[in-house]
């Protein structure tokens, strides 16, 4: 006996529960949608497979001709050992086999057309030659047509319709087997059926399993081929994107490094040129007793220096504004130099890397006379080299040697193949092995080489010739007191 709710709240709750129970369930995907997703790909169901190449089309035609010859030869063999149907004219089997194989010549160029033609021939030729319809070449040709349609069809919606027609055709083929070709009688034998099942029922089950495996296998293999082509296309597109991104990263890394070098050179050179302009102007004002020629020379120096500063700022102003973007207060900090190498080494020591910093001078005070711009480049080379040791090497220690020399002979007697003249050289060595899974892009070492080339120097970067480890050696040529470089070629 039903009970009444004891309170209005219970009645309201019951009504709400009833309403919830009667609310429509979320619609589920229809079986046609699931079939379409199964035939294709859930993420890209309408992807169109590229058509065959000319070489593939030529191979299709040649393969079809060879297949026709083989099929006709097998038909001759079957007739020779007595696999014939009484009353059927002999020529029909040959025509049926050749006609069934012929559409395979266009199976990849026009897969849907080949499927439609093969399906029509499959039913029509079964009436013309029941003997040929049960032979291996005939069945194989239709299997290949179904497979090619599923694997190469570009319009996947029409393919779904074609697959549905193929399934209907399977049922029609079973009916034909029992009516036109009287296939059951072929299996009775001379003594009649001996199994426990009714002959018609047994043959229906047997034929159904064979055709399900036949048509289903062709569709499954074709679908796997289409999905394999889709996966290869995705991998190719991904490889292209990765290659394009790598090229873009390389270009941006080189551009960023050049912009930073331009900004640093602007700071250093602009400072010194401005000092020249101020000093030249002061000299012109105080040199009242100098000849007019001297005063004219000083005017020229002052004007040239100020023009140089103005032109440099005009050319590099945009570059500096781009590199300063996002740097904040860091862009206003003093640029490091040779005196900051001890602090750099100490930073890496705190990270667990043992650093040995050695300074070797050909003459006392050589390192103090290194120009700030050159000192900055030396510092950046050491910084990048030690960073690579930490990131990409198993080394627990590294040595940094800073040396000066003249006339191609460094202070410690190391051999050199650079042009004669004064130079400053830095060498970073480690004894580790490459760390697995940490291969870099090489942009940092490329930046080191560009810095060295900017000053007209030489860089040697690579594995050590003796023992294990990596070696970075950068040599920068110094200028003499007249402002001329001590090398055979000017830096550009």
Outline the fold blueprint:
Blueprint: H1 8-22, H2 31-39, H3 54-80, H4 90-101, H5 111-128, H6 130-133, H7 136-152, H8 156-179, H9 183-186, H10 199-286, H11 292-324, H12 341-350, E1 354-360, H13 372-392, E2 397-406, E3 409-410, E4 423-430, H14 443-454, E5 458-463, E6 470-477
Parallel strand pairs: 1-2
Antiparallel strand pairs: 2-3, 2-4, 4-6, 5-6
Helix pairs in contact: 3-4, 4-5, 4-7, 5-7, 5-8, 7-10, 8-10, 10-11, 10-14, 13-14
Return the structural class.
alpha+beta
Determine the fraction of residues in helical runs and give it as a percent range: 55-70%
User: What is the number of beta strands?
Assistant: 6
β-strand percent reads: 5-15%
Q: Main sheet, how many strands, which sense, barrel? A: 6 strands, mixed
Radius of gyration, whole Å: 43 Å
- Averaged pLDDT: 76
What is the oligomer described by this structure? single chain
pLDDT < 50 stretches: 1-27, 481-492
Task: Characterize the structure shown.
The protein is an alpha+beta fold. It has 14 helices and six strands. It has helices spanning 8-22, 31-39, 54-80, 90-101, 111-128, 130-133, 136-152, 156-179, 183-186, 199-286, 292-324, 341-350, 372-392, 443-454, and strands spanning 354-360, 397-406, 409-410, 423-430, 458-463, 470-477. Strands 1, 2, 3, 4, 5 and 6 form a six-stranded mixed beta sheet that branches. Strand 1, helix 13 (372-392) and strand 2 (397-406) form a beta-alpha-beta unit. The model is unreliable at 1-27 and 481-492 (pLDDT under 50).
């Amino acid at each position: 006996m039903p009970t009444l709710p004891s309170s209005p709240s219970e009645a309201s709750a019951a009504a709400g529960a009833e309403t919830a129970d009667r609310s429509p369930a979320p619609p589920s995907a229809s079986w046609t949608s699931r079939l379409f997703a199964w035939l294709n790909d859930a993420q890209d169901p309408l992807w169109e497979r590229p058509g065959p190449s000319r070489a593939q089309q030529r191979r299709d035609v040649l393969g079809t001709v060879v297949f026709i010859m083989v099929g006709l030869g097998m038909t001759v063999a079957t007739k020779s050992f007595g696999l014939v149907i009484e009353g059927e004219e002999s020529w029909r089997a040959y025509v049926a086999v050749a006609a069934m194989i012929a559409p395979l010549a266009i199976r990849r160029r026009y897969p849907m057309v080949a499927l439609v033609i093969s399906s029509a021939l499959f039913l029509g030729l079964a009436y013309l030659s029941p003997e040929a319809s049960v032979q291996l070449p005939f069945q194989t040709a239709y299997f290949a047509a179904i497979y090619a349609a599923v694997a190469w069809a570009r319009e996947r919606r029409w393919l779904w319709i074609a697959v549905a027609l193929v399934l209907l055709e399977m049922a029609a083929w079973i009916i034909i087997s029992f009516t036109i070709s009287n296939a059951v009688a072929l299996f009775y034998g001379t003594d009649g059926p001996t199994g426990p099942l009714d002959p018609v029922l047994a043959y229906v089950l047997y034929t159904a399993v064979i055709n399900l495996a036949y048509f289903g296998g062709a569709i499954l293999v074709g679908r796997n081929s289409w999905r394999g082509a889709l996966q290869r296309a995705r991998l190719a597109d991904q490889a292209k994107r990765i290659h394009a991104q790598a090229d873009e990263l390389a270009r941006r890394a080189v551009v960023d490094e050049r912009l930073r070098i331009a900004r640093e050179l602007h700071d250093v050179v602009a400072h010194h040129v401005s000092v020249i302009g101020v000093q030249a102007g002061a000299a012109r004002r105080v040199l009242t007793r100098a000849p007019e020629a001297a005063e004219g020379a000083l005017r020229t120096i002052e004007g040239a220096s100020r023009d140089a500063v103005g032109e440099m700022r005009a050319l590099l102003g945009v570059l500096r504004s781009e590199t300063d973007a996002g740097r904040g207060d860091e862009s206003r900090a003093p640029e490091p130099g040779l005196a900051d190498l001890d602090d750099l080494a100490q930073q890496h020591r705190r990270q667990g890397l043992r650093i040995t910093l050695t300074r070797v001078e050909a003459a006392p005070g050589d390192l103090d006379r290194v120009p700030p711009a050159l000192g900055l480049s030396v510092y950046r080379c050491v910084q990048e080299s030690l960073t690579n040791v930490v990131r990409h090497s198993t080394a627990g220690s590294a040595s940094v040697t800073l040396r000066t020399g003249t006339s191609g002979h460094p202070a410690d007697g190391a051999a050199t193949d650079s042009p004669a003249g004064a130079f400053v050289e830095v060498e970073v060595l480690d004894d580790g092995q490459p760390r697995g899974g940490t291969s870099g892009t090489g942009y940092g070492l490329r930046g080191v080489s560009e810095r060295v080339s900017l000053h007209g120097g030489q860089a040697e970067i690579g594995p050590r010739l003796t023992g294990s480890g990596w070696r970075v050696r950068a040599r920068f040529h110094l200028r003499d007191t007249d402002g001329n470089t001590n090398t055979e070629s000017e830096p550009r």
